[in-house]
Structure formats: structure tokens, C-alpha cells
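re the bet — no i am not wrong, look at it urself. input seq straight from the record:
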Amino acid sequence: IPKALKKAQRKLDEAEELTAVALDSVKERQTFHDIILAAVMGYCYWPALCDLGFGLIAQLQRALINSRPQHYKDLKDMWTALNNGQDLHNHSVEHAIYVLVSKQTIKMESLTFNTRDMQMIEFLPGWKGLTLADATEEQKMQMPVLGNGGHRLDLLRTFQYSPKLEVYKDITAQIAKIDDTGKNTRSRQPLVEELENLKKELREVTWVAKVLDLGAIFSSYKMLRVKTKIQFIRHDQCT
């Protein structure tokens, strides 16, 4: 493995270590590890850009533990070291992101422990496309939460898909302008069709996810001193 790649992977691992925050003793760390292990419900493909508002699944809250802001320079260094994204293995189980999901919000059959048979996560009616802004307080407590992987997802959106995300924003703005002014209405339908095709493409950008039982995690965390930290970040409506 190239030295630069090892360095980049080490940076990612350091940035996204799920068990490293506020756990002072070896016993606490082991307890937290055991909770995580017992809460695993299976694997799936997770829409990597879902929290940007493409309406596919319930909006993802970021993040459970690592809430540090992403700095462009650090992301750029990682991207360069990862051979400009060529070594970013978003479909590798070894590089899976962790996502906490409520059993009451998904079709459990969309999860599997057979990593050769993974499929897209599927949410139940009423949760598909639900955003934090539209959710009730009770629903917010059941919204999916990113456990780790924020830096990895940001590499995709900041570099690989940045041009298409900019096009998405531009088309959306053009349609909004037509609706506000009532001018150039003939050009609206082609723009809408272009936007829908782009949405479909962006929805299919996926990352392998290890899915954890949100209810099990939050019923167990009371024994740990990360309680306040987790509660605070659970209500952080990142976009």
C-alpha cells in the first residue's frame, strides 16, 4: 500500500473513531464497543448524498460522536492522498460507515448480513423524504443518525460530485426564479425534467453502511458518560 494512502487512511480512522470520545477508562471503551456490536442489524447500501435533500429517505443527522467541522484543507489532503478518490472504497465492507436507524422506520428485509446480497436501505411510507425541518419532535428522535463516516461522505460531495451538485443547485434556482417571476415559463418543463434525471443519478450514489439499532444504542448509553454529548448532537440539524 502506498505510504500516502496509508497516511490518508490513518487520518480518516483518527477522524472517525467511533469509540474515542469521552470514554476515559478501558472498561468504558469496552462497554461501548459491546453495545455497538450487539446493536448491529445488518448491512445495506446507503445513499451517500441523502442528507442533501433528494427526497429518497429520511434525512440523516450528523453526527453521533464526531461533530467536528470538516476543513477543506484536510479534506483536500485526504483526497489527494487517496489518488484523487480512486482509492476511496465506498463499496467495501471494510470501509463501511456506521448509521443508527430506528427499527420502526425501515423495512428490515432491506438489511442483510450476507454482504454479497446487499441492497439499498428502504424506509417505510411516511419516512421516505422526511426532513428534519418537517419532522415532529418525536420523529426527530427516530431519524437516522450518522455514527461515523462524515469525512468520507464529504470527500464524495466536495470533490467527486461537486460539479453535479452545483448543477443541481443552479437548476433548482432557475425553476424557483421562473415560478417567482412568471417569465420564461416555456423553459420550465425541460428544466424540471433535467432536475429529475439528476436527482435520480444522485440518489444512486451509495456507500456501504453497517446499520445499528438506534433504540438499542440509546437505551444502553445511560451507563456511559457520553450521554450528554450524544443528546446534544442528536438535535444538531446539520445539512
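see?? Confidence is low (pLDDT under 50) at residues 14-23, 63-67, 223-239. told u. also The longest strand covers residues 40-47. so pay up
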